[in-house]
TrEMBL record:
One of its GO terms (molecular function) is ABC-type vitamin B12 transporter activity. Catalyzes amidations at positions B, D, E, and G on adenosylcobyrinic A,C-diamide. NH(2) groups are provided by glutamine, and one molecule of ATP is hydrogenolyzed for each amidation. Belongs to the CobB/CobQ family. CobQ subfamily. It comes from Actinocrinis puniceicyclus. InterPro entries: Class_I_gatase-like, CobQ/CobB/MinD/ParA_Nub-bd_dom, CobQ_GATase1, CobQ_synth, GATase_3, P-loop_NTPase. This is Cobyric acid synthase. PROSITE patterns: GATASE_COBBQ.
Amino acid sequence: MSPAARGALLIAGTTSDAGKSVLTAAICRWLARQGVRVAPFKAQNMSNNSAVCLDPRTGAGAELGRAQAMQAAAAGAVPEPAMNPILLKPGGERTSQVVVLGRPLAEASAQSYQSLKKRLLGTVLDAFDDLRSRYDVVVCEGAGSPTEINLREGDLANLGLARARSLPALVVGDIDRGGVFAAFHGTVALLDAADQALICGFLVNRFRGDPALLAPGLRMIEDHTGRPVLGVVPYLRDIWLDAEDSLTLQGRPLPAAAAPAPGREPLTVTVVHLPRVSNFTDVDALMLEPGVEVSFTTSARGIAEADLVVVPGTKATVSDLSWLRERGIADALMARAARGGVLLGICGGYQMFGKNIDDPVESRGGRVEGLGLLPVVTRFAADKTLARPRGFGLGQPVDSGYEIHHGVVSAHGGEPLFTDGAGVPLDGCVSGNVIGTLWHGTLESDGYRRAFLRWTAQRARRSFEPRSDTDFAAARLAQYDRLADAVAEHVDTDALWRLIEHGPTPGLRLLPPGA
């Protein structure tokens, strides 16, 4: 097949967390390695784990789902808001911030968003068409399941998109959960005829076991549905990628770091898993470092013993600060700081470390008292700061940082953490052994991460020395290549090409509704 063929493909799933994001990234990487210019696309995403990119239309900072930024990296493409035109960022149990083409549009309840979606269909289709005009192939990721029949009317991300642009769809099922054959059959049977005609095959994901025992089931599901199984992807246990949301944080594969060198102590890191945690991928680079042991906690346990405690970002700073107090974590953090422990607050965590927070925007709670660990104050602004800053920290260049926050922090003491080349303060505050910064992603800069770990080890009195050959960017790229290898080995790539080039398979059998 021609690597220059233009087309598109939708990767849907039987459930959330079936593996859509990973397999979309895998197919993007597989295509890119063959010289295809490929872009990912997810019409509507719900996640507090977002990334910051530059909007090519304006040059301004913009926001998109972290999974789409990851898929763009796998594709070798520059991330942009068109790859995720609608991003929903939950701020409570029933409300979300609606981000459209990278910028906040409104706060909406689940009910009011259903009305808003009708106005956003044109935005979604324009973004898709724009990408398709500039790339050879667009690989689309669905959201949840295409058979959420209560939400089918007005659907933007699954078969609503596929119908509007005649896209062939593959359905991914997680066989490790069980029930994959029933899920495949039910997905097709619950759809109307026009939607069924777009379901062109299945991908079995996370398989472990004897392929000979699976083979009869594959033949039977093909007979029952009239659609082929185009691949059985094995359970790739140690693949670590940016997750879409914190629901998968605890069970998420982590970077595999080696043991510390002989005669060297490990460095222990405890990360507070906030209820509305966002951008928790900030600590991925620490997990990759040999001898750094990272754990997560939702209680005060482990904070007193850790060499470093990290309080990450959050979509609900004031609410999560109250949660810290209710859980006794706030007291544990203050006690740890009083004993000289090293604490790192990132974005929302940094704001919590300050003297007070004035929030008329996110929580509308007015002024609340912070933990008083840093001489800073925060006031929330209506406009969100979205930027890709660069600077220097601890004597090392930092070129991996990004900002995404409403809170504007003013320091009234301490030392800046990041400066420009002339030493002018840019961000952050260091006071004793407590550090705060609004910049996410800084630990992905290898030189700065090593300097930060040395700084932490000295203050924790640990004989720990970070290795000089740990390359975070190379390690992440190797993950994408492993995914592409899995596609090449375990998926019928000729069939993928046919769907990309020619669209939905004609003459597919239609099942009676509810069959």
